[in-house]
Design brief:
Layout: E1 2-3, E2 13-23, E3 28-33, E4 46-51, E5 54-66, E6 69-74, H1 80-84, E7 90-94, E8 106-107, H2 108-111, E9 115-118, E10 123-132, E11 137-142, E12 147-150, E13 157-161, E14 166-169
Parallel strand pairs: 1-8, 9-14
Antiparallel strand pairs: 2-3, 2-7, 3-6, 4-5, 4-7, 5-6, 9-10, 10-11, 11-12, 13-14
Length: about 180
């Protein structure tokens, strides 16, 4: 089973959400969380915010649920203009801050960049992303062409080998 969260470009960080707006006049920020449940993002008191490989670390000093969303106050951000400058920033945490996964369970970020091979050893491409469809997650595999492979273990996903950087799938061009 894949645990959902998008990957950061930096393998030491994992993206958990992004800043999608400001709230009020005192520097509070609206947060879009990728975690499930969405409040799990608040388990991390230190966030690294950034875009385009430029990152800043902030401490979450206060948070509130606001309707179906979350708003936060970060240490050092107390003015609306400072908050506006952070809108659009990704929210990341250090990979080692994430809880350990169980055997057979992986964070999405750990799957990004893995080589995908069919059972005959033919390279289909690399994982460029994952989609949550409701029925099951889907691997987005980029290569000579983009493939969407259902993340269904023991049916399509035969083996995930993080150590060797590969995923073996039961996938044929007519699937």
């Amino acid at each position: 089973m894949a645990v959902k969260e998008p990957a950061a470009n930096d393998r030491d960080r994992v993206i958990l959400g992004w800043i999608n707006g400001v709230f009020g006049t005192r520097g509070w920020l609206k947060v879009y969380s990728y975690t499930r449940p969405r409040e799990n993002i608040l388990s991390y008191r230190t966030w690294t915010l950034g875009a385009n490989h430029s990152w800043q670390t902030f401490e979450v000093i206060e948070h509130r649920r606001r309707g179906v969303g979350i708003v936060v106050c970060l240490k050092g951000i107390s003015e609306r203009d400072d908050a506006i400058a952070l809108v659009g920033s990704k929210i990341a945490v250090d990979r080692e801050a994430l809880p350990r996964t169980r055997v057979g369970e992986y964070y999405w970020a750990s799957l990004i960049g893995l080589e995908v091979l069919d059972q005959g050893g033919t390279t289909l491409g690399t994982v460029t992303g994952l989609l949550e469809t409701g029925a099951n997650d889907v691997l987005v595999v980029g290569g000579s062409k983009e493939r969407l492979i259902p993340y269904v273990q023991d049916r399509y996903v035969i083996e995930v080998d993080i150590e060797n950087g590969r995923i073996i799938v039961d996938w044929h061009e007519n699937d």
